[in-house]
Write a structure and sequence with these properties.
Elements lengths: L2 H13 L4 E6 H5 L21 E8 L7 E4 L17 E3 H19 L4 E4 L4 H7 L4 E2 L5 E2 L7 E8 L19 H5 L25 H4 L15 E3 L2 E3 L3 H4 L5 H12 L5
Antiparallel strand pairs: 1-2, 2-8, 3-4, 3-10, 5-8, 6-7, 9-10
Bound molecules: cobalamin and iron/sulfur cluster (2 copies).
């Protein structure tokens, strides 16, 4: 088990823009239940001799990093579980996956196999790797940047030291995200102890609407439209969250304000 390799990989991940880095045992992640039709699989589904899952998170700070473009298939609706076979482009999926592939070269150079994926249970991986708490809107909320983080995972046969799970309840009595959702898609109460996949009502959430041939017109205003099939994903239950907001907004200002001479 190489603690030294893990620290080298953490530094490499940071060079690729992933400031969040953790490791979870592949067998432990495989035990976490998830519903079908979410594109998800256990780590060994991506790499048969999976031993560890490296979970990496990137700060997503601009609305256009959440851009999506979908195509309309001739026979109508595009079901979510068929998205890999349809034309669905999501900016942050592409950014994080491309960078995770570049990162994975370092794992292979160290003599290990890798599989880069967005489709292990990423929120469970992140919380089991100690990076954040699964909040009431089901997103993994980091103490540093709240939910404004997107995850990508690298499954490997390297045996790396695992991190301790995150156990501090960052939500407490807060329910701001639940109240903010304009379509009441989030069931009130904590995410913990809820049947997998049932905390958010999938078809009440605005995000999958954008994959339909005819999205709910009344909901389009929450997913700004820029072209006939181009929008950004709804961000309301992220923006409502007070955790990490100060640092997120500080960075947005710093990244977007031209310094005065
Ligand atoms: C399917 C999916 C969706 C679906 C369904 C979402 C849902 N909550 O059910 C739809 C299309 C609606 C959706 C919408 C969005 N999504 Co989405 N989505 C996914 C995907 C592909 C799988 C999620 C899933 O079904 N997980 C399995 C089920 C079982 O989890 P769950 O029910 O949500 O949560 C349960 C567990 O977390 C468990 N649990 C709670 N506490 C703990 C603690 C421990 C230790 C464990 C083990 C388990 C556990 O209990 C929860 C309730 O049952 C992931 C990518 C991935 N690979 O994971 C992205 C992902 C979750 N989405 C993401 C985002 C950002 C969004 C949106 C904000 C859209 C946007 N602007 O980008 C919205 C938010 C809606 C919401 N409130 O969830 C990010 C979240 C980033 C983060 N900070 O965690 C992910 C991780 C993608 C990524 N690459 O980063 N999404
Ligand atoms: S992404 Fe928007 S519609 Fe979906 S649960 Fe969050 S606030 Fe509600
Ligand atoms: S808005 Fe409140 S309840 Fe929702 S995730 Fe953030 S802290 Fe938790």
């Amino acid at each position: 088990m190489s603690a030294e390799l893990k620290e080298q990989l953490r530094a490499t991940a940071a060079e690729h823009g992933f400031e969040f880095f953790g490791v979870v045992d592949a067998g432990t992640l495989a035990e976490v239940p998830f519903p079908p039709n979410r594109c998800l699989d256990v780590p060994s589904g991506f790499l048969p001799d999976a031993k560890s899952v490296i979970v990496m998170g990137m700060h997503i700070w601009d609305v256009m990093q959440n851009a999506v473009v979908t195509s309309v298939l001739p026979d109508g609706a595009i079901p979510f579980d068929d998205v890999p076979g349809s034309q669905y482009y999501n900016m942050y999926y592409e950014i994080t996956e491309a960078r995770a592939h570049r990162f994975a070269e370092a794992v292979r150079e160290a003599g290990h196999k890798t599989a880069v994926t967005h489709f292990v249970h990423a929120k469970a991986a992140a919380t089991l790797a100690g990076l954040g708490w699964i909040g009431k809107q089901t997103l993994c909320v980091t103490p540093e940047l709240g939910p404004h983080v997107r995850w990508a995972c690298v499954v490997t046969d390297a045996v790396l030291p695992c991190d301790e799970p995150f156990t501090e309840d960052l939500c407490g009595e807060c329910e701001l995200c639940v109240a903010a959702c304009p379509t009441q898609a989030i069931i009130p109460g904590p995410s913990q102890g809820v049947e997998p996949g049932k905390k958010v009502d999938f078809w009440k959430c605005i995000v999958p609407q954008e994959m339909l041939a005819e999205p709910n017109k009344a909901w389009e205003k929450w997913a700004g439209h820029y072209s006939p099939r181009g929008s950004h994903e709804c961000l309301i239950c992220l923006d409502a969250c007070p955790i990490g907001r100060e640092e997120h907004e500080r960075r947005v200002r710093a990244y977007t304000t031209r310094p005065t001479a």
